[in-house]
């Protein structure tokens, strides 16, 4: 089963310096039919004007992933991390017992476009932590976040795996899944291009919730496709 979440149907927020689209209920946007998938609680598609950003604020007991589509994030947190996160890199901040941070567009001339993702941890009150990495796209589906941090991936405190999908126009890749794997949730967030998933078409900004599929065919039907694919527990 594939349930499509069209880009234009997401929640909208416009603060002037920030334009954001919310896949799931967030802040002033509330929709009881879209409260998250498994442990995946937030996907915010954020566009920040030059020089603007989020002032210092706190988080607790949440795994927060940022992926920069264009531009650069300037990050500073209460553990002394002062980092820049350029386009194509992933950041994973484990809020745990508590962390304060700020996020700004590092440029005074160019806009910033990034996805902010929240995943509920499987254990509360862990020590806060910070991870950041650029990943070589060694295959169409490249794991970037895993529960155990294997093979140099970022480690998340949850039974969840995040892949980056990159396909050239006309290219296809198949994800075959055992019966146990098919019982898990897949969520796809398309960033660019046009993607066909088992006959369902996604355009940039669309999302899709996949359940009970033993085989998933991803085909780039127009332009280069970049997407994030979440493999999530059926029980979280």
TrEMBL record:
Residues 8-119 form the Pirin N-terminal domain. InterPro entries: Pirin (IPR012093), Pirin_N_dom (IPR003829), Quercetinase_C (IPR041602), RmlC-like_jellyroll (IPR014710), RmlC_Cupin_sf (IPR011051). CDD domains: cupin_Yhhw_N (cd02910). Fe cation binds at residues 57, 59, 101, 103. Its cofactor is Fe cation. Binds 1 Fe cation per subunit. Belongs to the pirin family. This is Pirin domain protein domain protein. It comes from Shewanella baltica (strain OS155 / ATCC BAA-1091).
């Amino acid at each position: 089963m594939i349930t499509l979440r069209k880009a234009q149907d997401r929640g909208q927020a416009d603060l002037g310096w920030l334009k954001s689209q919310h896949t799931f209920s967030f802040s002033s946007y509330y929709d009881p039919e879209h409260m998250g998938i498994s442990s995946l609680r937030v996907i915010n598609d954020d566009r920040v004007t030059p020089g603007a950003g989020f002032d210092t604020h706190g988080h607790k007991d949440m795994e927060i992933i940022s992926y920069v589509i264009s531009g650069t994030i300037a990050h500073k947190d209460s553990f002394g991390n002062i980092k820049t996160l350029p386009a194509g890199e992933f950041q994973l901040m484990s809020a745990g017992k508590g962390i304060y941070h700020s996020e700004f567009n590092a440029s005074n001339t160019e806009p910033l476009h990034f996805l902010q993702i929240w995943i509920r941890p499987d254990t509360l009150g862990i020590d806060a932590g910070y991870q950041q990495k650029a990943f070589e796209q060694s295959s169409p589906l490249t794991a970037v976040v895993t529960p155990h941090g294997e093979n140099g991936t970022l480690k998340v405190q949850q039974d969840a795996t995040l892949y980056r999908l990159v396909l050239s126009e006309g290219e296809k890749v198949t994800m075959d899944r055992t019966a146990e794997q098919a019982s898990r949730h897949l969520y796809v967030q398309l960033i660019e291009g046009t993607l066909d998933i088992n006959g369902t078409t996604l355009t940039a900004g669309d999302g899709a919730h996949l359940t009970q599929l033993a085989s998933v065919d991803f085909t780039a039907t127009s332009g280069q496709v970049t997407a994030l694919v979440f493999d999530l527990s059926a029980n979280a």
